[in-house]
């Protein structure tokens, strides 16, 4: 075991809270009667529906396409009938255009066979990734084929796979690495072929020793002289899984402000995205299922569920035996960066990595008070910013001045608000500052 | 929005929706303040043993006045009342620590009005005050009651007779502080009065000397400071910068000739330890970055030595911190944290 790496400044240590689900194998959830597939799953232009009402679709069939702009196609997770083309509840956008599919439970499940992808050229591989609707499923939702097409002048020399999973509670990537290590590694090889690089590092936080061991074995099995895949243990520190922090930990390179990782010669993908790329390229299976961690003291049966995209949270709650009365907060995503929701009819998207049902003692509901200038947020910020200044400026109606403090470097990881003794909503201040500074 | 019919959900439940992050550390402002108050208790009790029981009464009066003034201020200014967050209690304890043990009980009451109402709430309440409230209280008392604040010193009690001064006329027993003796009568008189050599340092470090209520026991103050550093509530930067600067400059300029001063005595014989650990590290009135705190600490140390050697007062740390307080935000403007990476074209 090599020494553990980490990023150099800032970071916090929230309670990991992964014990509930870390040991639970991925379980396939039965398909509910109805799915609502949001058309804007990824960052960029939302899909336009390619189907009409009452039309019949097959599992993996195309239901949406991006006509212009950046984006990927959308596929039906099930065989069934289009019931409606309307809107669905959405954690961030309140409501969003969606396609509702009535599931045909009689239809046979699609059967995908792994083929040989080695014969295909890099361009064909990339085309398959795009056609399968692959986006970054770690949470960012950036179309993967774009990441696989770095600018011409970028000298990409290695691929990084992100298996840090630094958010508390979430164990979806952890289980993927344990149960589908070979798919992840094969996915990495496909990406390496597309990018034309020979080196790949997989970064995994040291609180998942079993995943490190499994992945190391899988990586050693396929590594050769012209294709080295190494697994590297990382210190447990939030936000280890942030792209820029991971790049610094694994390569020592710093991605400049407002730049992409390709500027320092690396491309980063999540381990689950790599597995999805393998499914897309080798099996021609589009991305329409997702491993989602369901955890928290407020749900009766925590689980790592493989669910169809479009499954509503309420169906998951039903399947897992309901919620406990002391439930106070429902979060889509992790406790540090996720969104609180008030409506259980919200469907799972390709980027949902967890739904957490937290009770009173797990969440913080303290009111906030004035900044006492303790400077803890400055020590916690992984980007070397001054969160307190942003908050003070926003409160004083001087948000447009915050661009000077590098507010656009902030990726809203929440470390500052986590440590703030006055419990100030610093992430909210940053979001307001960004909105106002853009105007 | 229609909520789907759901058997497994309690009816009409409401869930909290708020911005991320949803988990937060268990540190709160109140916890910090109360911890500092707790760290100040051992020196207080030692002070009761050294100067007698009225020390406890002065401190109690000071704390009660501060909390009462905070309540009245917040009520009268139409702000939410936050007397439970410990900050007024802490100001009360610190204010008591900064006054001589033989003063009238009226002084802490007036000091509390200045500290809490004028220096804190008229500036905008917690987080907005420019000057350290406790030090503002002391400065106000020093200007208003110069005789009491510079002569109500008591010699340490022999044999722990903590009631010996209780009710006694202070004039009968008053003495002078080491720094005052040193400044006004010189080293020879100082040695006659307090002795010399290792036993002098030891007794000063343990607190067996005249002085303000809370400043004498360097040992217990450092112990509390070490705990605060261990808890990450303060860092070593400010205290070390202050004390290091005081020691260095006293060593250079404070003796009969250059490089002939006694740095250890300079740290042990006044309020330097109390000020550097508990006043100069006040979050609200000090810089936020580590480099800023070092600059700030050096400034405080330099001003302290300047006042001690060239000024009209034997002790300078109170005014040194008050003079550096308004510069804290200026220092913050120059001492920024190191950014992760500059814009493109910067370092790779």
The number of helical segments of chain B is 17
Counting helices, strands and paired strands, the structural category of chain B is mainly alpha
Helix content of chain B: 55-70%
Largest contact between protein chains?
A: A-B, 80 and 52 residues
Q: On the 0-100 scale, what is the average pLDDT of chain A?
A: 91
Structure explained in plain terms:
The complex is a heterodimer of chains A (439) and B (348). By secondary structure, chain A is α/β, with parallel strands linked by helices. Chain A has helices spanning 122-131, 144-147, 172-179, 181-195, 209-222, 243-251, 271-283, 313-319, 376-380, 387-395, 415-419, 426-438; strands spanning 26-28, 34-38, 48-49, 56-57, 62-65, 74-75, 80-90, 94-103, 158-163, 199-205, 228-234, 266-270, 289-295, 303-308, 327-332, 339-341, 354-359. In chain A, the strands form four sheets. A six-stranded mixed beta sheet of chain A has the order 1-14-13-17-15-16. The longest helix of chain A is centred in the middle third of the chain and has 15 residues, at 181-195. With 348 residues, chain B is mainly alpha-helical. Chain B contains 17 helices and no strands. In chain B, helix 3 (54-76) crosses helix 4, helix 6 packs across helix 16 and helix 12 (237-253) packs parallel to helix 15 (290-310). The longest helix of chain B is centred in the N-terminal third of the chain and has 23 residues, at 54-76. The chains are: A alpha/beta (439), B mainly alpha (348). Chains A and B meet through helix 8, strand 15, strand 16, helix 11 and helix 12 of A and helix 1 of B.
Summarize the structure.
The complex is a heterodimer of chains A (439) and B (348). Chain A has 439 residues and is of the alpha/beta class.
């Amino acid at each position: 075991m090599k020494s553990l790496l980490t990023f150099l400044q800032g970071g916090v240590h929230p309670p990991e809270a992964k014990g509930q689900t870390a040991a639970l194998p991925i379980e396939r959830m039965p398909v509910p009667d109805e799915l609502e597939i949001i058309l804007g799953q990824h960052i960029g232009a939302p899909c336009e529906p390619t189907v009409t009402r009452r039309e019949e679709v097959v599992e993996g069939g195309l239901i949406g396409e991006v006509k212009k702009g950046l984006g990927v196609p959308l596929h039906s997770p099930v065989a069934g009938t289009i019931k409606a083309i309307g809107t669905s509840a959405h954690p961030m956008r309140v409501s969003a255009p969606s396609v509702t599919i009535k599931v045909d439970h009689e239809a046979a499940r699609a059967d995908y066979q792994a083929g040989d992808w080695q014969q295909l050229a890099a361009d064909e591989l990339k085309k398959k990734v795009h056609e399968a609707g692959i986006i970054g499923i770690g949470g960012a939702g950036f179309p993967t084929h774009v990441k696989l097409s770095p600018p011409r002048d970028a000298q990409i020399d290695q691929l990084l796979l992100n298996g840090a999973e630094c958010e508390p509670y979430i164990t979806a990537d952890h289980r993927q690495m344990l149960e589908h290590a070979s798919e992840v590694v094969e996915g990495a090889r496909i990406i390496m072929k597309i990018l034309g690089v020979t080196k790949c590092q997989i970064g995994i936080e040291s609180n998942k020793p079993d995943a490190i061991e499994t992945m190391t074995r899988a990586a050693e099995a396929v590594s050769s002289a012209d294709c080295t895949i190494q697994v590297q243990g990382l210190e447990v520190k939030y936000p280890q899984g942030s792209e820029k922090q991971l790049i610094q930990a694994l390569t020592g390179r710093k991605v400049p402000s407002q730049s992409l990782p390709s500027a320092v010669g690396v491309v980063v993908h999540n381990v689950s995205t790599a597995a999805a790329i393998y499914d897309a390229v080798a099996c021609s299976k589009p991305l329409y299922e997702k491993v989602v961690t369901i955890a928290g003291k407020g749900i009766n049966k925590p689980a790592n569920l493989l669910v169809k995209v479009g499954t509503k949270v309420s169906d998951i709650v039903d399947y897992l035996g309901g919620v406990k009365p002391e439930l106070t907060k429902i979060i889509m995503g992790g406790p540090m960066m996720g969104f609180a929701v008030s409506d259980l009819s919200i469907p799972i998207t390709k980027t949902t990595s967890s739904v957490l049902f937290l009770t009173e003692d797990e969440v913080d509901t303290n009111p906030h008070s004035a900044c006492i200038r303790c400077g803890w947020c400055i020590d916690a910020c992984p980007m070397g910013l001054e969160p307190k200044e942003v908050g003070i400026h926003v409160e004083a109606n001087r948000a447009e001045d915050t661009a000077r403090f590098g507010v656009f470097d902030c990726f809203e990881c929440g470390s500052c608000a986590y440590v703030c003794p006055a419990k100030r909503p610093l992430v909210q201040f940053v979001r307001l500052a960004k909105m106002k500074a853009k105007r | 929005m229609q909520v789907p019919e759901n058997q497994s959900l309690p009816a009409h439940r409401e869930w909290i929706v708020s911005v991320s992050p949803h988990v937060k550390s268990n540190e709160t402002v109140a916890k910090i303040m109360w911890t500092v108050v707790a760290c100040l208790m051992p020196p207080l009790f030692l002070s009761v043993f050294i100067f007698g029981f009225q020390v406890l009464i002065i401190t109690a009066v000071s704390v009660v006045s501060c909390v009462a003034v905070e309540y009245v201020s917040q009520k009268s200014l139409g702000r939410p009342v936050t007397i439970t967050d410990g900050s007024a209690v802490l100001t009360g304890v610190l204010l008591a620590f900064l006054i001589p043990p033989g003063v009238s009980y009226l002084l802490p009451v007036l000091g509390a009005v200045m500290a809490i109402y004028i220096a804190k709430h008229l500036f905008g309440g917690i987080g907005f005050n420019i000057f350290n409230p406790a030090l503002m209280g002391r400065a106000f008392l020093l200007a208003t009651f110069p005789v009491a604040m510079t002569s109500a010193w008591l010699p340490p009690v022999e044999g722990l007779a903590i009631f010996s001064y209780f009710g006694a006329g202070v004039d009968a027993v008053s003495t002078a502080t080491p720094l005052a003796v040193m400044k006004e009568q010189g080293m020879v008189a100082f040695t006659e009065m307090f002795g010399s050599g290792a036993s002098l340092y030891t007794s000063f470090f343990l607190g067996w000397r005249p002085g303000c209520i809370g400043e004498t026991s360097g040992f217990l103050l450092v112990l509390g400071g070490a705990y605060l550093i261990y808890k990450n509530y303060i860092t070593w930067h400010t205290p070390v910068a202050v004390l290091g600067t005081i020691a260095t400059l006293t060593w250079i300029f404070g003796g009969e000739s250059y490089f002939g001063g006694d740095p250890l005595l300079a740290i042990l014989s006044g309020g330097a330890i109390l000020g550097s650990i508990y006043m100069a590290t006040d979050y609200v009135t000090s810089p936020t970055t580590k480099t800023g705190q070092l600059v700030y600490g050096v400034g405080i140390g330099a001003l302290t030595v300047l006042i001690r050697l060239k000024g009209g007062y034997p002790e300078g740390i109170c005014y040194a911190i008050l003079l550096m307080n308004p510069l804290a935000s200026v220092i913050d403007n120059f001492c920024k944290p190191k950014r992760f990476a500059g814009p493109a074209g910067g370092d790779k």
